[in-house]
């Protein structure tokens, strides 16, 4: 397993319904505890832990055209072989309505 660096990067355009389906699929995989992103030799398979550190950020960006950007970063510690390590951080500031 690669120790550092980008394992996968992807970008696509979705309708609101397609994005909702993508997020629902991710949520189902998180509940199951495993997640595979990508395909064939470029796929990344992950076992997921019970707890995560999550950071969310919303900002306006863009030079010529103003854009709204929502970033969600989900982090967890792993062994060198990719096995999740237990971790626990307090949750704060997260309300989705």
TrEMBL record:
Residues 78-97 are annotated as: Disordered. Residues 6-82 form the Amphi-Trp domain. It comes from the Bacteria. This is Amphi-Trp domain-containing protein. InterPro entries: Amphi-Trp_dom.
């Amino acid at each position: 397993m690669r120790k550092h660096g980008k394992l996968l990067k992807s970008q696509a355009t979705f309708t609101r319904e397609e994005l909702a389906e993508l997020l629902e699929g991710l949520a189902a995989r998180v509940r199951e505890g495993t997640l595979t992103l990508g395909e064939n030799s470029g796929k990344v398979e992950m076992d997921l832990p019970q707890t995560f550190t999550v950071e969310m950020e919303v900002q306006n960006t863009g030079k010529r055209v103003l854009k709204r950007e929502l970033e969600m970063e989900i982090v967890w510690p792993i062994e060198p072989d990719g096995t999740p390590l237990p971790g626990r951080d307090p949750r704060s500031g997260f309300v989705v309505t």
